[in-house]
Amino acid sequence: MFENLSERLGGVFDRLTKQGALTDADVATALREVRVALLEADVSLPVARDFVAAVQERATGQAVTKSVTPGQQVVKIVHDELVRVLTGDDEPEALKIDNPPSAVLMVGLQGSGKTTTTAKLAKRLKDKNGKRILMASLDTNRPAAMEQLQILGTQIGVDTLPIVKGETAVQIARRAKQQATLGGYDVYMLDTAGRLHIDEVLMGEVQAVRDIAQPRETLLVVDGLTGQDAVNVATEFDGKVGITGVVLTRMDGDGRGGAALSMRAVTGKPIRFVGLGEKLDALETFEAGRVAGRILG
Ligand code: GDP
């Protein structure tokens, strides 16, 4: 992940480390290159601008140019700032699934990896947290998507709500809640219908489902390869249904990483997990330090 940004910044810092003592002009040049690298990684302009300004302020404050190893010092400042932007100063939060049956609402556009991520997260909660999970697909427009969740459930040993033809999303949500309560499940996960674009019908449906389930977590699944678009989708979903966190998928691809950097700064919502492949265990908790390390290479 992040190859391009990593290589780009790597090049900048290679030159910095080789030069020995730096002048103010050297630092300014390096920061300009950092800014270009961020923009090329599809980080939004205000975020890139703020990032460079913060690094510059700290670099000046710490008298980097007089340091024996100015390049490494700048690298450290950039690393710390990356972590700060990626996490928004907060400790990573655990999912709030402490009140059985807790609902987890999965939202996002079609093709973002929502159904796969629902199954990945269910598997993780079962294997790592010992939770009893019930999954339900609300994608009444696409029977294939409902069947897909059922197949995934069988693969990972997680129950799915039986499919009843002709039900609306709201009816399915109600049935899932009832079954989760009666069946003694810890968590029920609702895989909502995706659309190709955000539309009012979709949002209305998600809002109605949300009102019934009153989810402890509403996780937006977005394709990490879509950069700034992912951030725009997150802003829209948050405004319409309110999200508690983001899962960035396809972070195993050669994406440019901009979505991760802008997401927290623009939406104020934490990235909870990253998807790192098609396999059902390819889901990791988001760790800013590791991501920052990868960005820097
Ligand atoms: P949905 O329409 O949002 O429910 O999307 P799906 O869950 O059906 O996923 C669409 C495709 O993306 C499938 O082929 C998944 O295997 C794939 N996919 C999902 N998450 C990831 C990921 O993190 N990395 C990669 N490489 N592929 C993923």
UniProtKB/TrEMBL annotation:
Q: Does the keyword Protein transport apply?
A: no
Q: Which residues are in the SRP54-type proteins GTP-binding domain?
A: 270-283
Which EC number(s) are documented for this chain?
3.6.5.4
Molecular function in Gene Ontology: 7S RNA binding; GTP binding; GTPase activity
Q: What is this entry's stated membrane topology?
A: Peripheral membrane protein
Q: What is its main location?
A: membrane
Q: Name one GO biological process term.
A: SRP-dependent cotranslational protein targeting to membrane
Q: Does the keyword Metal-binding apply?
A: no
The UniProt family comment states: Belongs to the GTP-binding SRP family. SRP54 subfamily.
Please give the record's comment on domains.
Composed of three domains: the N-terminal N domain, which is responsible for interactions with the ribosome, the central G domain, which binds GTP, and the C-terminal M domain, which binds the RNA and the signal sequence of the RNC.
Biological function: Involved in targeting and insertion of nascent membrane proteins into the cytoplasmic membrane. Binds to the hydrophobic signal sequence of the ribosome-nascent chain (RNC) as it emerges from the ribosomes. The SRP-RNC complex is then targeted to the cytoplasmic membrane where it interacts with the SRP receptor FtsY. Interaction with FtsY leads to the transfer of the RNC complex to the Sec translocase for insertion into the membrane, the hydrolysis of GTP by both Ffh and FtsY, and the dissociation of the SRP-FtsY complex into the individual components.
Q: What protein name does the entry list? A: Signal recognition particle protein
> Can you name the source organism?
Phaeovulum veldkampii DSM 11550
Corresponding gene? ffh
